[in-house]
Amino acid sequence: MCGIVGGVGKLDLRTYLLSGLKKLEYRGYDSAGICYTESGKTILSKVAGRVASLEEIVPENIHPTVGIAHTRWATHGQPNAQNAHPHQSQRKIFSIVHNGVIENFRPLAHQLKARGYSFNSETDTEVIADMLERFYLRSGSVIESIAQTMEALEGSYACAIMFKDEPERLYFMKKASPLLIGMSDGCMLLASDPVPMVDYTDRFIDVDDGDYGYLTPTQVKIFNGRVEIEPRFVHRNVDSFRSDLGDYPHYMIKEIEEIPGVVVRLIDNYFDGEHFTFNESMIETLRHTKKIHFLACGTSYYASKMGAKYFRPLGKEVLVSIASEWAYDPYDITGDTVFVLVSQSGETADLIRCQKIINDRDGISIAVTNTKGSTIERKATYSCLLYAGLEVAVASTKSYVAQVCFLALLFAALENEIGVVLDIDRVVDSIRNIISRKGEIEALAEDCKEVRDAFFVGRGYDYLASMEGALKLKEVSYVHAEAYPGGELKHGPIALIEPGTLVVGLVSDPEVSSSIRNNFEELRARKGRLVIFSTAAVANENDAFVANDVKPYLAPNVLVVAMQYFAYYVALAKGLPIDKPRNLAKSVTVE
Ligand code: AGP
After folding, report:
1. pLDDT digit string (tens) for 569-581?
2. Which of 481, 399, 426, 441 is CA-nearest to residue 562?
3. Residues 411 and 478 in one domain
């Protein structure tokens, strides 16, 4: 994970690097650091904790010519200042920031130790700095040392590199982790994604795997292997990368309340009032394939589970796999399968690995992502955007609803079922109603703020929504929460129910409402504390929150929004850092 930024040239580098890091904190935020050259001197500062703490120790009146900075999600070594990036080579001639994981760093460290190198940190990154130095001392060329280092490294990396004797040059190298170059007046910028750069430029280069090179204030040099590549800047609409809090206290609640607009925008993008407007060739491919296999992680995986249930009436085999599992057991790669890769960020490492496996075997993939220009979007056979706008909070909210509605629309397009659009319109109204009644959910959450464990229970579609509800609660509220299908409780989990154990029950599907109500009674008989979220058609008078009716196959989208508020308000009552929960990062860019 981790976010990197770098810049060279005529700009206020302190502002760019520190504000850029803040915008990248969604990629990790357990430590941060900066390195810059001013009047020929290289200055390094690192802290444990957030970028705000780093900002306090970087003097305001600096005028660097080149600089790099990093916000970290620890993979190797504790999140302390010593392990924070930038790291420097033994003779301090190279300073680098790195996003990725070096898989062979132990043997490389062993080799370096044998040559007299010692290490100041527990990270895999320090090895890269020392490898650069070692090759530089032999060749006398920075570019050659980068090429040789890349040949030696296994794993993933996007690195920005400063060389002590070149105060107006910023080097880079990239494999598997994302890296972009931005061009502005009199300066060149680097970052893990466009967000830090959008106030400076709308012209970018997506650095390709295997690329390395350097930036000067006015020039870009790119090499791949030993061949020089022509740099090609492309214009990107940067508006979609902006988001500010406005009057909201947190991005999570802001993004929950954007959901109705997101769903309306989604419909507008895929339905013109009479016809669906999906790519025709993609629709035909899906119609003719024998199998549809969804791959995703986390929230996107739960959304895919819902989508898969929609697709089952197509009479095809429909599978859903967790990307990190499938990547190590990639079954089902035949010409008969279309893979659907669902990802908010489009940069999730496990899913990128799956995509590479599919592409290497000439498989067909459809990317469903919120991020234009992301790796998943660029590398898929077909790609479809969610148009949900930038999602900043680590906890996915609007993306989940967009993903599920997208998959419902895609199914409708395959079956020419225009009625689905009207069904989704009602979802919008029902969610608006929930937003107007969020105070009721806040009161329920306030009552539950002391709980340590919670069970989310439902059947059918409601069980699928329970999984996402439980993930939200554990993620932002640090409550141990698990989802179970109502019928499974008696097969083991009910042993955990003690007097007062919180059970969040979901019921919206009339087909299963009487059986899930029986399960709720079994839990009550064991003195479980039930908080039931239902929809009007199946509501009981003691239910804690009753949402307006929508079609049962879409009801989870409505109840999930109530679950999102519930998790938000429990976290708020506990005074937790809602948008950046501990140990997490928005975009999981390491496997
Ligand atoms: C969602 O709340 C989580 N933070 C996480 O599970 C996320 O959904 C998962 O990492 C997948 O991310 P993606 O959709 O960007 O691929």
Report:
1. 999 999 999 999 9
2. 441
3. no
Asked if the structure places residue 589 within a domain, the reply is: no
Strand order in the sheet with 317-322: 317-322, 291-296, 337-343, 364-369, 382-385
Domain co-membership, 514 together with 554: yes
Nearest ligand 1 atom, CA 396: 2
**What's the rounded Cα separation, in Å, for the pair 402 and 405?**
5
Pocket of ligand 1 (CB under 6 A): 297-300, 343-345, 348, 351, 394-396, 475, 587-588
Distance 585 CA to ligand 1 centre (A): 9
pLDDT higher than threshold 80 for residue 243: no
Q: In DSSP terms, which residues pair with 254 in a beta bridge?
A: none
Tokens for 286, please give them. Answer: 């899906």
| 226-252 residues labelled b (16+ CB within 10 A) or e (exposed) | eeebebeeeebebebbebeeeeeebbb
Of the listed 2, 159, 187, 297, which one is catalytic? 2
Q: Which residues pair with 350 in a beta bridge?
A: none
Which residue intervals of 140-231 are DSSP H helices? 142-152
The residue range of the domain holding 169 is 3-241
List the CATH number of the domain containing 255: 3.40.50.10490
pLDDT digits (tens, 9 = 90+) for 184-222: 999 999 999 898 999 999 999 999 999 999 999 999 999
Ligand 1 pocket mutation pick from 73, 297, 474, 586 by most atoms within 8 angstroms of CB: 297
* Residue 448 annotated among the catalytic residues of the structure: no
Q: Is 538 helix (H, G, I), strand (E, B) or coil?
A: helix
Instruction: Enumerate the β-bridge partners of residue 188.
Output: 8, 183
The CA-CA-CA angle for residues 22, 174, 30, to 5°, reads: 30
The domain that holds 192 is classified in CATH as 3.60.20.10
Of all protein residues, the one whose alpha carbon is nearest to atom 5 of ligand 1 is 298
pLDDT at 591: 75
Helices (H), 26-141: 51-57, 105-114, 125-139
Is there a single domain that holds both residue 264 and residue 226? no
Are residues 279 and 235 located together in one domain of the fold? no
Nearest-atom number in ligand 1 for the CA of 584 is 4
Last-in-domain residue among 192, 224, 241: 241
Question: 160 and 170 in contact (C-beta within 8 Å)?
Answer: yes
Measured CA to CA, the distance from residue 273 to residue 252 in angstroms comes to 32
Which of 206, 241, 276 is a domain's end point? 241
* Structure tokens given for 481: 């929460």
DSSP 275: S
Exposure of 185 by Cβ count < 10 A (0-12 exposed, 13-18 middle, 19+ buried)? exposed
Which residue stretches of 480-540 are H helix? 510-525
Distance (angstroms) between ligand 1 centre and the Cα of 294 equals: 15
Return mean pLDDT, the chain: 94
Residue 265 near residue 222 (C-beta atoms within 8 A): no
Among the ranges given (128-142, 187-201, 228-242, 369-383), the one the predictor scored with the smallest mean pLDDT: 228-242
Q: What is the pLDDT of residue 126?
A: 94
pLDDT confidence of residue 77: 76
Active site residue 586: yes
pLDDT of 293 above 90: yes
Q: How many domains does the chain have?
A: 3
Predicted local confidence at residue 28, as pLDDT: 79
Identify whether 110 is part of a domain: yes
